[in-house]
Structures are given as structure tokens and as C-alpha cells.
Amino acid sequence: MKSGLTLIIVLALIQITKQDCFRQSNSFLKRNHQNVLSYQAGALISSKLKNGFNNGNNGVCLRDNLYKILNDGLPYTACGKGQSISIRLLQKYLLNTLKIWLWDYGFSEGDRYYNITVYAILNQGKKNIYVSNSENPAISQMTIQFQEQYVDEFEVVNVDGNTFNQGLHIIKVEAYYKFY
Ligand SMILES: *[C@@H]1O[C@H](CO)[C@@H](O)[C@H](O)[C@H]1NC(C)=O
After folding, report:
1. Which UniProt keywords apply (predicted)?
2. How many angstroms is it from 137 CA to the middle of ligand 1?
3. pTM, whole model, 2 decimals?
4. Atom 9, ligand 1: residue with shortest CA distance
């Protein structure tokens, strides 16, 4: 009788511990450490009608096959001054890092700096996560770290072109939860 009771208590303890473990790993998984801005992750370019895709579908900034450099650089997704490039996620994810690879193949003009503003969006509520400035310039492969938050869309606004012309040219984007 006594050992039966002990067994029940031990089993109950195991059950509680297991639930705790599950709860923890569950919230761990919400922090998405894989890139959510890819074809495989179900992301879509929601601003597509206002964007240009250099070299057709090869210019979609969600693709992975982009390390073969053409004579004139790499295909990119583009928009004009005052327009934006927006990417809608499959669902909301808890994120804190956005990487943007901007066109960085200069043709004798030197480094190319962009003038952009970036928003993380959830249910149409926009939060500004980046404004380019001289301390934090928008150039080449840049990483934007922001306060962790749920995001269902990113918007990159072309505020005032770049140091060479009026366009915004994005080669690739990535977003994930980074553990620091
Ligand atoms: C970006 O463009 C805006 C509008 O023209 C301007 O006010 C701002 O100073 C520019 N920022 C940089 C870093 O050049």
C-alpha cells in the first residue's frame, strides 16, 4: 500500500517534469532561428507590382542560388525612390534580426550607400527598426538587430536612392531570431 502510493507520487513528479520540459522547448521553438525569408519558408514579395526583378525570376531576393556572379554583378529586386520592397511572411514569427544584402558591385564609382528606412510590421502596425545614417550606413551586407518582436511583414523604403542613382537594389534578404 505504502509503496503503491510512493509509485503514484513518483509517476506524478515525472509527469510534471515532462510537461515543464515540453513547455520550455515549445517557447524555444517560437524563436525562429532559421531564415524565414525564403521560398521554402513561404515568404512572398507583397510589393511585387511596384518592384522590378532584374534578370526575371532570378532577381527575386528570396532565392538562395546567388553566388555565381555574372559579368554585371548579381540579379536584384528593385524599386524607385519613394517606393518600397515588402516581404510578407508565412505567419507571424518572433524575430530580432534582419539581414539585407544591397547591391555592392561598384562600376568604378566606389562604395554605394543607400538611403533607406526599414519597418517590422505586425497586423499592419509598423515599427521602425532602422534608418540609415553615417554611423549606421546602409551598404553591402548589413545586419539590423532589433528588439525581439512578432513580425508578419518587413518593409524596406527607398527614401532617397543611393550614392550612384535613385534606385534601391536588394540582392538577398534573411530574417531570423539570433541567440546572443
Ligand atoms: C536620406 O534622405 C533624406 C531625404 O532626402 C535626407 O533628409 C537624409 O539626410 C538622407 N540620409 C542620409 C544618411 O543621407
Report:
1. Signal
2. 11
3. 0.84
4. 133
